[in-house]
Amino acid sequence: MFRFELTVQKLNVYGDRVDSTSAASILADNLSEAVTKGRVAHSATYDDFRKFWSHSFSLVSVTEADPMPATPDHLIGGRQEDPDTEIANPAGSV
Q: Residue 10: exposed, middle, or buried by beta-carbon count in 10 A (0-12, 13-18, 19+)?
């Protein structure tokens, strides 16, 4: 899994001028998947008559993302009880 830093450019109706520019950070396995996710996130459309996308993407950087972020010890194993709280109905009791 990689983190792709992209510059997103929204093009005008004719595709010859940039209307706006923004930054995007996308987690994906490859550049193609990152661009697809970027198109979905920015509601990009394809102009079949003029043959271009409404948004273009420029790659700024790629870094390897941590596949599983570190989990604090107090979250491992599910919900943790407060040690001072008495359990109302412990397992095995009626």
A: middle
Q: Which two tokens stand for residue 55?
A: 């948004």
Q: In b/e form, how buried is each residue of 34-54, taking b as 16+ CB within 10 angstroms? A: bbebbbeebebeeeeeeeeeb
Could you report the per-residue pLDDT of 36-81, keeping only the tens digit for each?
Answer: 999 999 999 999 998 999 999 999 999 998 766 665 555 555 555 5
Q: Provide the token pair at 76.
A: 């491992």
DSSP letters spanning 6-54: EEEEEE-TTSSSEEEEEEEEEEESSHHHHHHHHHHHTT--EETTTTEES
For residue 20, give both structure tokens. 């706006």
For strands 55-64 and 52-53, give the pairing: unpaired
